[in-house]
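Amino acid chain
________________
===
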Amino acid sequence: MFRITFFGTGNGLSYPNRENTFFLVQHLPGGTSYLIDCGGSPWAKLVKTGVRPEELGALLITHAHPDHIYGLPALIQSLWLAGRTKPLPIYCPAGAKKTVVGLLELFDLPQKPNMFDIQITEQPLDGEVQAFTQGSLTVKTFPALHGIPTMGTAFYEATNKGQVKVIYSADTVYNPLLESLAKDATCLIHECNGADQAQGKHSSLHDVIRLKEQAQPHQVVLVHLTEGENYEQLMRQYELKQPYFMLAEDGMSLRVSL
């Protein structure tokens, strides 16, 4: 079972009611947490969610655009000030490590006294690749189509009832790889930068619905949203209803299980 808390659900611009998209995946009942990307005030949001410094199991950076990574120095400093000693694994797509290291070095964070070990791993972008396992949990990454090195994430939990599968598209245009990876997913979290049409290398609501028809996930949650778009109107036209197809909101939590 997973608990997913959306710390931000907006696009690269962000809005008064929507910060840039990043979210927390908690593996229950064990309580280990995994942060997907790192936007504004990450420590305060972790505390509000009840995550203690040692309970953050890993950080997964989908790509090195500012809106997905700018909170990293604040997160590392806050964990250090809060007394974390446990190493922190950071996973990023191949080619993004330079930016991750640069942000840490900019503020001399690795040189802080008693700084915990920061373990950076670049993930290949040539198909679905395992990042790590922990008990019944397996986390994998896969290439997204966004113009710079970008990776989506897949969380798999083996249970006596079957497999719980949470797939996150990351920023991407329509990605045919998701037709198989998201097949029968328990929850598909997908970016949706526009309703009728997305700007740049992003997905529209029409793209997400096309993927839904191919992959048949049990639930779809939209993130990376643009204010003022007619998402609700199009959802009504397609007869898409919550909780099976929903727009994420900042601070929203949901449980994902079989």
About this structure: The radius of gyration is 17 Å.
